[in-house]
Amino acid sequence: MFDLLIKNGLIVDGKGKEPFRGDVAIRDGTIVEVGKIIERAHNEIEASNFQVTPGFVDIHTHYDGQVTWGEELTPSSNHGVTTAVMGNCGVGFAPCRPTDKERLISLMEGVEDIPHPVLSEGLPWNWETFPEYLDSLSKRKFDIDFAAQIPHGPLRVYVMGDRGANREPATKEDINTMAALTSEAISAGALGFSTSRTLNHQTADGQPTPTLTAELDELVGIAKGVQAAGSGVMQVVTDFKGSEGEFEILKEMVKQSNRPLSVSVAQHHRVTDGWRNILNTIEEANKEGIDLKAQVCGRPVGVLFGLELTNNPFSAHPSFQSIEHLTLKEKLKKLKDPAFKEKLLSEKPQLENNPFLRQVHSRYHDMYAFEDEPNYEPLPSTSIAALAEKRGIHPLMLCLEILTQDDGKNMIYYTFLNYGEGTLEPAKKMMEHPNTILGLGDGGAHCGSICDGSFTTHMLTHWVRDRTRGEKLTLQWVIKAHCQDTARAVGLYDRGIIAPGYKADINVIDLKNMKLHKPEVHYDLPAAGRRLMQYAEGYVATIVNGEIIYLDGKPTGARPGKLVRGSQRAPLN
């Protein structure tokens, strides 16, 4: 008998072809048969009203800390993700000397908005080298599989100490050591190497990331370390300032290593067509045989504002700063006091040393109130600016009104990137470009400001089923893009397809009734730390390594997930 049989489902196999009706049989964590199956199984799922797809492979997450204290990689596993790749953007916790723990916590806190107390209490620090970090994770069980990349920030500090943290140029000896450690990490099971070259990434005390100004010889030297390991991918985030120079670095990294590289790309609100130039250059590079891809996403990169969250439109107002330490209930009471409210709305925010909030106060047209079922392609006519103008009030007055509703739990969605023209048409063109892959979900990070780990569900509800402001995408296209394409982009050839011999990582989906709920605040991290969570309806079953981890949207408690060490070969058949 089979271990598990999924009967009569509409199979979307991840290869991009038309869905077909059939059964899927699983034994020992592997798909063994697809088609019309007569034999029985110990456990069966009747899927005649549902779609059967491979599990999603999310290549851009930050669970580097969460995997050391938790067993559930939520919110990603809530949204059909069965493999998550962490260690992106050059930040993480290994390698690390005992004297550098605070440095790496500060870097992760600043870049990925994971609070210091959470990391300080949650991280066991039972490692120093990257192979030791992987060994510590390999002893643990999880709901889904995950893979790690060696991050440039910790690597640079480990090798160079203060010089690395202070962004001093690396010596030849430094570069050789970083290359050797990168090769060692990949040989031990790291999926690749990541780095950051963006001013948006700063430590908790406002210092740029240690890797911001790393020079060509350093990055090429490390890339050669990836090549020496015989496998591995590279991931980069950059501002593309002086883009020709940046592209020369990216292209040279690929040329010298003969390994694939992906770089984050989104639409900027000021240079709304800049992404076209970037993708054109990437396309030209691929014509030259340079394996360079852009990581893109299908909705705005949206920062959430709320009274419980990291920021809101009043965060730079002295009056709000005076009550920031209060509980939500106490804040709400103050904000509803007429005298306090009048003072708050009349005072000038202190924006001199906060470029992010300074930008926020000039972009009310990019802010939207969240409904119970969030709309990630809202009409510009429904923005805070447009609604305030219609009512003849200042946008901040409307912001306060929204944030104090629903017992202070309401949120405002600030479309920080990818929505510069008030439409997702540019995002669609980016996704459909031949040299892009879906990413940028950031699961596990930005605990008090961003909740984009639900990208996978949004691709189904919005792009396949509900979109009204332009053409949709087909179900088979979205499944291929989020399963086979993402898996192959990082060297995981054993998953992302429903066919005999592939890993039994599968979603049974009720697309007709799928629903994405708005994010909510939970206090379930170490030290009672806060994070944003988002749930969905419509996942009938999520299966990892042949075991059901979610059934009708509820976790089963199964822990079949594990650390994936390095790239994985495709089945022989």
What's the short version?
The protein is an alpha/beta fold and 573 residues long.
What does this structure look like?
This protein is 32% helix and 20% strand. With 573 residues, it is α/β, with parallel strands linked by helices. It folds into three domains: 2-56 and 504-527 and 537-555, Roll (Urease, subunit C, domain 1), CATH 2.30.40.10; 61-299 and 420-489, Alpha-Beta Barrel (TIM Barrel), CATH 3.20.20; 310-415, no CATH class. Strands 1, 2, 3, 4, 5, 18, 23, 24 and 25 form a nine-stranded mixed β-sheet that branches. The longest helix is centred in the first third of the chain and has 17 residues, at 172-188. It is globular. The model has no long low-confidence stretch (mean pLDDT 97).
Ordered list of secondary-structure elements with their pairings:
Elements: E1 2-11, E2 20-27, E3 30-35, E4 41-46, E5 51-54, E6 56-58, H1 66-69, E7 81-85, H2 101-112, H3 116-122, H4 130-138, E8 145-147, E9 150-151, H5 152-160, H6 162-165, H7 172-188, E10 192-197, H8 216-229, E11 233-238, H9 243-257, E12 261-264, H10 274-287, E13 292-296, E14 301-305, H11 318-321, H12 328-335, H13 338-346, H14 355-360, E15 367-369, H15 384-391, H16 395-403, E16 412-417, H17 425-432, E17 436-438, H18 455-466, H19 475-482, H20 484-489, E18 506-509, E19 515-516, E20 520-525, E21 529-533, E22 536-537, E23 539-544, E24 547-551, E25 554-555
Parallel strand pairs: 1-4, 1-5, 6-7, 7-8, 9-10, 10-11, 11-12, 12-13, 13-17
Antiparallel strand pairs: 1-2, 2-3, 5-18, 14-16, 15-16, 18-23, 19-22, 20-21, 23-24, 24-25
